[in-house]
Amino acid sequence: MYTTLPVCGDDCSDIYGLDYKCDLTTCTCMPKSVTSHTCGNNFKESTNEECDGYDDSWCKSDEVCSTDCACVKGTRGVCGDGVKQVNEQCDGADKALCAADQVCSTSCVCVAGVATSVCGNNVREATEACDGTDHGTCTSTQTCAINCVCQNVAQATCGNNVKEGAEQCDGTDRTACTSSQTCNQNCLCQTVQQQSVCGNQIIEAGEECEDASGCGAGYSCIGCACACTDSDSDQACDSIDNCPNDYNPGQGDYDGDGIGDVCDTVPVDCPSECSAGLANYALGQNNQAACNAKIDADMQAALNGLTTRTCFTTCKYSSTNSTYMTISMNNQVTFGCCCTGPVAAWKVEHACTDCPGQNPVCPDPDVVC
Q1: What is the DSSP letter of 131?
Q2: Which is nearest to 177 in space by CA: 155, 196, 167, 159?
Q3: Cα(102)–Cα(325) distance, rounded to whole angstroms?
Q4: How many CA atoms lie within 13 A of 302 on its CB side?
Q5: Do the domain assignments include residue 328?
Q6: What is the pLDDT of residues 9-41, one digit of tens each?
Q7: Residues 214, 223: contact at Cβ < 8 Å?
Q8: Would you say residue 72 lies in a domain?
Q9: Among 25-34, 201-210, 283-292, where is mean pLDDT lowest?
Q10: How many domains does the chain have?
């Protein structure tokens, strides 16, 4: 490192300690161990150097220090990533600028020494391309071999009983699996599920119950699974079936009274189905003959209420909106409603001739009525 003093000649040892001196050429503080102006020693020592290695404080934010100690455009390299950048003399195994008797230091500078490394300690050193878990310069398709060099990963073949590549296991080769695991068809270690035994009064994996006490009301324990009682086999549990003893998978309930259509004696609310002004004749429900008899009786009663006179042929008439209505529900149940209403009755009188004589002649009803 270096620093520019307020006044050239100030004592660097007062500021940085006894190991530092003031270089009067550049008016900067530097270690006393530096005895010559050498580009590449990480100290800017003369006006001929704009920077030196990591000593690049005079470079702009978008500049780095080149190997000839000049500030150039670029991105500062990360020492230790195995890739030599413009501000580095070397980086790990990339020693392009180092001499044969030099190694790359941890500060990415070529220094005298013999490259030494311990392959297998998970630390990439000297000429190693990688070391164990320190993949160093290996690519994503490579792995670190036991001699600390990068080698391409062999294509794994799942099913050949040989653990390869990214496989956790392969067939009988289950060395990486635990005692409670097996090797599945994808060559991955998988925990073995304990086989459950139905009937041992212990609820195990995949079981819902061992007896009826483990199920809710209306349910039975069948094969260690809770199943509801379905007396009519219509896929609706008796506890919710609106006709538990009659097959009705559709659960139709036309009048919404909670009783299914197939077992409801009166599945239709006839009073609400009849048109305005008409009343439901309950005795005629679902019986068209009884309904028609009721309608005929009502009309006859209205006709009987009309009076007649002597010497007249009286024509009697009546009409009504009463009707029998058939309702079909879910193509499974048909029910009828007898809707009755007021009957209108009236008469038309045709006078007889020669009346009150002994032989009055009256019009024939079949002709005039």
Answers
A1: B
A2: 167
A3: 111
A4: 18
A5: yes
A6: 556 666 656 666 776 666 666 666 666 667 877
A7: no
A8: no
A9: 25-34
A10: 1
pLDDT in tens, 167-182: 899 999 998 899 888 8
Q: Would 360 be classed as within a structural domain?
A: yes
Tokens of 28: 């900067």
Q: Are 162 and 175 in contact (CB under 8 A)?
A: no
Q: Tell me the two tokens of residue 82.
A: 């195995």
In a domain, 342, yes or no: yes
CA pair distance 236, 241, nearest whole angstrom: 5
Q: Are 261 and 333 in contact (CB under 8 A)?
A: yes
Evaluate the omega torsion of the peptide bond into residue 271 and state whether it is cis, within 30 degrees of 0.
no
Distance (Å, rounded) from C-alpha 228 to C-alpha 235? 9
Sequence length of the chain is: 369
User: What SS3 state is found at 196?
Assistant: coil
Do residues 138 and 130 touch, judged by C-beta distance below 8 A? yes
pLDDT band at 2 (very low <50, low <70, confident <90, very high): very low
Q: How far is CA 2 from CA 10, 54, 129, 235, 301, in A?
A: 14, 11, 34, 89, 129
Q: How many CB atoms are located within 10 Å of the residue 275 CB? A: 10
- Decide: 21 and 30 in contact? Cβ < 8 Å: yes
As a whole number of angstroms, the distance between CA 344 and CA 316 comes to 11
Half-sphere exposure of 274 (CA within 13 A, CB side): 21
Question: What 3-state DSSP class applies to 284?
Answer: helix
Q: Which residues contact 263 (CB under 8 A, 6 or more apart)?
A: 242, 243, 245, 246, 248
3-class DSSP state for residue 283?
Answer: helix
CA 337/CA 334 separation, integer angstroms: 10
Which of the residue ranges 2-6, 109-113, 255-259 has the most confident prediction, judged by mean pLDDT?
255-259
Distance CA 210, CA 68 (A): 84
**Residue 259: half-sphere exposure toward Cβ, Cα within 13 Å:** 9
- Rama region for 120: left / alpha / beta (φ>0; ψ in -120 to 50; rest): left
Which structure tokens are listed for 100?
A: 């044969």
One-letter identity of residue 337: C
Which is higher by pLDDT, 296 or 36? 296
Domain that holds residue 279: 270-368
Tokens of 145: 């071999």
